[in-house]
Design brief:
Distance between the termini: 55 Å
Radius of gyration: 23 Å
Length: 178
């Protein structure tokens, strides 16, 4: 039983492209094929895994392992689902560790920094203002941009701890926009 749990979740761990929620049907199929849980138990496990902190696929594997074989089953299932990612990361990290000294590779990563920054800014604007009928340049939006820039500068220049910046920004947002 334990070996079956490990192999099943190891296989799922190698196929987890698209995030944890994309793996729920695969996990459900495997649970049904092995007869580990009935539908209601699986649904409850997924609901509980979604509410718990951490990746939903890992949480679901842990809960299914626990329901199936107790603490040892939970441990085996968790190791099975995270081990493929860990192995892949180790392989990629060792490759990049050796490539880090290469001048062309360093130049590529240096050139990618502004592209990634631009994509993040685009996503923030696109999703932040998608459903608003108002103009992008309202007092509220401009003040948010100015405050965000100030927080960025405070974090970078004055070494302000990021968690402090997040809490202070939330308090200022409540004070100004509530």
């Amino acid at each position: 039983m334990l070996w079956e749990l490990f192999l099943t979740f190891f296989k799922i761990g190698f196929m987890s492209f698209g995030g944890g929620y994309a793996m729920i049907p695969v996990i459900g199929h495997e649970v049904e094929a092995h007869g580990w849980l009935v539908d209601e138990q699986f649904t409850n496990s997924v609901a509980l895994a979604g509410m718990a902190p951490g990746p939903i696929a890992t949480n679901t594997a842990t809960l299914i392992g626990y329901e199936t074989a107790g603490i040892i089953g939970a441990t085996v299932s968790t190791i099975g689902i995270i081990l493929p990612s860990l192995l892949i990361i180790i392989i990629i990290a060792s490759f990049f560790y050796h490539m880090d000294q290469n001048k062309q590779v360093r130049s590529i990563f240096y050139g990618l920094k502004p592209v990634v920054t631009g994509l993040i800014i685009y996503a923030a604007i696109h999703f932040g203002f998608k459903d608003q009928a108002e103009s992008l340049f309202t007092w509220k939006n401009v003040s948010i941009a100015v405050m965000a820039s100030g927080v960025f500068l405070a974090v970078m220049k004055h070494k302000l701890y990021p968690l402090t910046a997040i809490v202070l920004s939330g308090l200022v947002g409540i004070a100004l926009f509530s």
